[in-house]
Design goal:
309 residues; alpha/beta; Purple Acid Phosphatase, chain A, domain 2; 6-stranded mixed β-sheet; 5-stranded mixed β-sheet; 11 strands; globular
Length: 309
């Protein structure tokens, strides 16, 4: 969860915007995509034209081969883009929250972290399996901080969501009847799935979505739920860029108006997961989607282990 003092990011109307999500440690694919798009030199140097933004809507970490390397690359590009008249907006996803809350000792988040890709993140920092298997959260956190003291602060610097024109960019999606202004107090936007994109209530015209319509939001870019290829819903007003089900990482130049299916899409193959997830049933995943937002909200409200400055 973003540190409570962090505000959402507003991207100027005249910027061009590229978006990606659920990058999960895929540094090689991300470097190739950013180079193909002309945003970088294909490695660590920002080369995009002025007034260009890159938005990553969460889940930079876990599962893939180099979570730490990817986070460091994106943080470096964020600094370079700012100095070059551009912007890199790093947003939080449920996996960033699972790392932060899990290593802070929140039991439910620690279990999710260990089940859904956390060991791959530890390995990317140079940890060996015996340093996390059977270890408690505080022991793992101390070792991660020793090996990569910049890692957790980088995740705490991720914003809750971004706005550009009539587009909201967010990890899981808008939540029915929850005003966007209240998102900083609710983690439901990180875990929501079909209740947003598969809802029979048309976004943003149905009554359930009136808080977004009233805020000038008519379109959304999101991830979290894997699809084979970039997929639009609600007559092209929303697009899912989480293409892990197609074993690919995607990048989109977001259409400035109209149908988001008219965006420019690029893709690169994803490398295999470095460490498999624990076997978890679909029913258990649904339970976590339902229960973890409240766990996160309680943790943030308590102030336990949450930076305030």
């Amino acid at each position: 969860m973003a540190a409570p003092h962090l505000a959402p990011i507003t991207i100027p109307l005249d910027f061009s915007v590229w978006a990606a999500t659920d990058l999960h440690g895929q540094l090689t694919a991300v470097d190739a995509l950013l180079g193909e798009a002309g945003l970088t030199d294909g490695a660590g140097r920002w080369t995009a034209p002025r007034r260009t933004a890159l938005v990553v809507t969460g889940d930079m970490v876990d599962r893939g081969p180099d979570s730490l390397g990817l986070v460091r690359r994106l943080v470096s590009l964020r600094e370079q883009a700012r100095d070059a008249g551009g912007m890199v907006a790093l947003l939080e996803g449920n996996h960033e929250v699972q790392v932060l809350g899990g290593l802070a000792g929140v039991p439910e988040l620690f279990r999710a972290l260990m089940a859904f890709g956390g060991p791959a993140t530890f390995a990317s920092a140079g940890m060996e399996p015996q340093e996390w298997i059977g270890r408690d959260a505080s022991t793992i956190a101390a070792r991660m901080d020793e090996l990569a003291p910049d890692f957790r602060p980088a995740l705490w610097s991720c914003a809750p969501y971004a706005r550009w024109r009539d587009v909201v960019l967010v990890h899981g999606g808008p939540v029915p009847d929850v005003p966007v202004q209240a998102w900083g107090r609710s983690a439901a936007r990180l875990w929501i799935r079909g209740a947003f994109f598969a809802s029979e209530a048309e976004f943003p015209t149905a009554a359930e979505w009136s808080p977004y319509r009233d805020a000038g939001i008519g379109r959304a870019v999101f991830g979290h739920t894997p699809v084979d290829r970039p997929t639009t819903y609600h007559h092209g007003r929303v697009v899912n860029l989480d293409t892990w089900r197609g074993h690919a990482v995607s990048l989109a130049r977001v259409a400035p108006d109209g149908d988001l299916g008219e965006s420019r899409f690029l893709a690169q193959p994803a490398q295999p997961r470095s460490i498999p997830d624990a076997p978890v049933s679909g029913e258990e995943v649904s339970r976590l989607d339902r229960d973890l937002p409240a766990v996160v909200d309680d943790w943030i409200a308590s102030g336990r282990g949450v930076p305030t400055g």
